[in-house]
C-alpha cells in the first residue's frame, strides 16, 4: 500500500488553544503520512486530541504550527477559495450525522453539489445514484427525523461522497450507533474504499472499529502520537503503553497469577476456525486455563484474541508455545499479564 | 349607540391598525433580520467573529430596547416629521414602530438562528460552503420554522405598541380606545376595541403557529 506520494501528510504539527486558564496543548508534534487507498484509523481516549486532529486535516481547526499537505499541496498556503475547493475533495461525516433537518434525504445529498454550483437537475441525478449506493433509494423523500440512526449516517455518507472526494474523514461516525448498525456502516465504508479507492480516515475510541476495517492505525495518547503502524502488527505486538492498553483485553491490569506464564494468542483471520485449543490440549497432553477470549468467526476465519494460562511445568509450557507457533498463530508470552 | 358612524369608525380603525402592523413589521424585519444575522455571525463563536462590531451592535440594540415605547415615540417626533412629514396618524406611527420593532426583531432572529445545530454549520464548512451560503442555505433555512414563529410574536408585539401609540396621536383601534374609552368614558366602545384587538392577535398568533408546524420537519 505504501506509495511514493501520500495523499495526506502532516508535518510536525502543533495545535494549542487559548483559554482563560492559559494555553492548552491539544496536539503536539504530530507527524503522519496517509497513503492513497488507506483505511487509516486514529484511535485514542476521549480528550486525547483525535477530533482536533481530524479537523486540522481539512482546516476546520487551524494548526498553530507545522503543515498539512493534501495531494502535495500545503493547505495552509491556500487562498480562501482554493481552500473551499480543497475541502470539496474531502468528505466528512460526524458522530451526530449533522444532516440538515429541514431538508429531505435527497436534498441533503444535493446540498454540497448545489453550493459548488452544480445545476439542480444534475445534482439530483447524482444524489439518486448515491442513494442507490447506500441502499436508501426508497427513503429519498424522507426527512432526517423520520430516519433511524444508521439510515441518517448512510445519508451523511452519500452526502459526503457527492462531490467525488479523494478522502473521507469520519469523526466517531459509528459511536452513536448500536453494534449491528456499526458493522453495517463499517461494511459500507469498506466497500466504498474498495470500489472507488477513496482514502478513509477513521477517528474512533473503539479498537473493534479499527480491527474491523482499518489497515493502518495511529494511536494518540495525551496529545501525541504514541504509535503508528499496520493494524495487524500493532494488534499482535503493541509497543507503547497506550497501544497495550487498547489491545490487551480490559487494558493492562497489574493483577498477577503468581509464578504462572500466560500466552496471548492472536487470531488474525489467516487461520480457519478449527478447534486449535482443543487440539493443542489433546496433542500436548497438558491442560490450560483460558483467562480471556474474544474471538469471532468471520467467514469461517478466526478473528480476535485469547489469553491462556500455561501449565506450571516448564516443559509442558514450552511444548504448548511451540505447538501454537508451529500452527502459524501469532503468540506472545505475557508474563504476569492477566486480568 | 353603534350606529353607522361608529361602525365605520371602527372599520377604519381596524384597517389603520392592520396597515400599521403590516408595514411596521415588514420594515422592522428589513432592518432587524440582517441585524440579527450579523449579531450571530460576528459573535466570538460565530462563523465570522468580529468583536468590536458585535459589541457596538449589541449596545445599540440594548439601548433602543430599554427605552419604553411611548417615550421613544415622543422623543423621535422630529425624525418622524422628517421622514413622513407629520407626527400624527398611522403613517407617523409606523416610523416609531419600526425604530422600536427592529431591535426586538433582531433579538428574535438572533435567538432563532442560535438554535441551529453548530454541527450542521460545521458540516457545511467541511463541504466548502462560503459564509454567505451558510447564512442563506443553512442558518436561515434550518431556522425557518422558528423565524416564522418569531414573526408572529413580533407582529403581535407591534400591534400592542401601535395601540399604545393612540396616546400620542397614533391612529387605529388604539386611538379609538384612548379617545372614546379613556377621554370620554365610553366604556362600550373601549370594550369593542379591546375585543377586536384580541381577535386580531389571536388570528396572527394562530396563523404563525400553523405555518410553523407546517414548515417544521423535525417531527
TrEMBL record, chain B:
Topology in the lipid bilayer: Multi-pass membrane protein
Domain of life of the native organism: Bacteria
Annotated localization: Cell membrane
One annotated GO biological process: D-methionine transmembrane transport
GO CC, any one term: plasma membrane
Domain spans labelled ABC transmembrane type-1: 14-208
Gene3D superfamilies: MetI-like
Record-annotated membrane-spanning stretches: 18-41, 53-80, 92-109, 147-177, 189-209
Record keywords: Cell membrane, Membrane, Transmembrane, Transmembrane helix, Transport
PROSITE patterns in UniProt: ABC_TM1
Keyword Transmembrane: yes
InterPro entries: AA_ABC_Transporter_Permease, MetI-like, MetI-like_sf
Main location: membrane
PANTHER family referenced in this protein's UniProt entry, alphabetically: ABC TRANSPORTER PERMEASE, D-METHIONINE TRANSPORT SYSTEM PERMEASE PROTEIN METI-RELATED
Protein family according to the UniProt entry: Belongs to the binding-protein-dependent transport system permease family. CysTW subfamily.
Protein name in UniProt: ABC transporter permease
Amino acid at each position: 500500500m505504501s506509495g511514493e506520494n501520500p495523499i495526506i501528510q502532516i508535518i510536525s504539527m502543533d495545535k494549542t488553544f487559548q483559554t482563560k486558564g492559559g494555553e492548552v496543548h491539544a496536539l503536539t508534534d504530530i507527524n503522519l503520512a496517509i497513503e492513497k487507498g488507506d483505511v487509516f484509523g486514529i484511535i485514542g481516549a476521549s480528550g486525547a486530541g483525535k477530533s482536533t486532529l481530524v479537523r486540522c486535516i481539512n482546516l476546520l481547526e487551524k494548526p498553530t504550527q507545522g503543515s498539512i499537505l493534501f495531494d502535495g499541496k500545503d493547505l495552509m498556503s491556500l487562498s480562501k477559495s482554493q481552500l473551499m475547493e480543497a475541502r470539496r475533495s474531502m468528505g466528512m461525516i460526524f458522530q451526530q450525522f449533522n444532516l440538515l433537518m429541514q431538508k429531505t434525504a435527497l436534498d441533503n445529498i444535493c446540498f454540497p453539489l448545489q453550493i459548488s454550483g452544480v445545476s439542480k437537475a444534475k445534482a439530483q441525478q447524482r444524489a439518486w445514484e448515491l442513494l442507490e449506493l447506500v441502499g436508501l433509494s426508497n427513503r429519498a423523500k424522507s426527512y432526517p427525523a423520520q430516519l433511524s440512526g444508521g439510515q441518517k449516517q448512510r445519508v451523511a455518507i452519500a452526502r459526503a461522497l457527492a462531490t467525488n472526494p479523494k478522502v473521507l474523514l469520519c469523526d466517531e461516525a459509528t459511536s452513536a450507533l448500536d453494534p449491528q448498525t456499526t458493522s453495517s456502516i463499517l461494511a459500507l465504508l469498506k466497500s466504498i474504499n474498495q470500489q472507488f479507492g477513496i482514502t478513509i480516515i477513521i477517528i474512533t475510541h473503539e479498537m473493534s472499529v479499527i480491527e474491523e476495517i482499518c489497515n493502518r492505525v495511529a494511536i494518540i495518547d495525551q496529545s501525541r502520537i504514541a504509535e503508528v503502524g499496520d493494524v495487524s502488527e500493532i494488534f499482535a505486538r503493541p509497543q507503547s503503553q497506550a497501544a497495550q492498553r487498547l489491545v490487551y483485553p480490559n487494558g493492562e491490569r497489574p493483577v498477577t497469577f503468581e509464578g504462572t506464564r500466560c500466552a496471548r494468542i492472536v487470531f488474525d483471520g489467516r487461520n480457519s476456525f478449527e478447534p486449535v485449543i482443543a487440539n493443542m490440549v489433546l496433542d500436548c497432553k497438558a491442560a490450560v486455563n483460558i483467562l480471556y477470549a474474544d474471538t469471532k468467526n468471520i467467514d469461517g476465519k478466526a478473528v480476535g484474541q485469547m489469553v491462556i494460562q500455561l501449565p506450571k511445568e516448564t516443559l509442558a509450557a514450552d511444548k504448548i508455545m511451540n505447538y501454537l507457533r508451529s500452527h502459524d498463530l501469532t503468540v506472545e508470552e505475557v508474563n504476569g499479564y492477566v486480568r | 349607540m353603534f350606529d353607522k358612524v361608529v361602525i365605520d369608525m371602527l372599520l377604519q380603525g381596524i384597517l389603520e391598525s392592520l396597515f400599521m402592523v403590516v408595514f411596521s413589521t415588514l420594515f422592522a424585519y428589513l432592518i432587524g433580520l440582517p441585524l440579527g444575522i450579523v449579531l450571530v455571525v460576528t459573535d466570538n463563536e460565530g462563523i465570522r467573529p468580529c468583536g468590536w462590531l458585535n459589541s457596538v451592535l449589541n449596545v445599540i440594540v440594548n439601548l433602543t430596547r430599554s427605552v419604553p415605547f411611548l417615550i421613544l415615540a415622543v422623543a423621535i417626533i422630529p425624525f418622524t416629521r422628517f421622514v413622513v412629514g407629520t407626527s400624527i396618524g398611522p403613517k407617523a406611527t409606523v416610523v416609531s414602530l419600526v425604530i422600536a420593532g427592529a431591535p426586538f426583531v433582531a433579538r428574535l432572529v438572533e435567538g432563532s438562528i442560535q438554535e441551529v445545530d453548530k454541527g450542521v454549520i460545521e458540516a457545511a464548512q467541511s463541504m466548502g460552503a462560503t459564509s454567505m451560503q451558510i447564512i442563506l442555505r443553512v442558518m436561515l433555512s434550518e431556522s425557518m420554522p422558528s423565524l416564522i414563529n418569531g414573526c408572529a410574536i413580533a407582529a403581535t408585539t407591534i400591534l400592542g405598541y401601535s395601540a399604545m401609540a393612540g396616546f400620542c396621536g397614533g391612529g387605529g383601534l388604539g386611538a379609538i380606545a384612548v379617545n372614546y374609552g379613556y377621554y370620554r368614558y365610553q366604556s362600550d366602545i373601549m370594550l369593542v376595541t379591546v375585543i377586536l384587538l384580541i381577535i386580531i392577535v389571536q388570528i396572527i398568533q394562530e396563523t404563525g403557529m400553523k405555518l410553523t408546524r407546517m414548515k417544521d420537519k423535525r417531527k
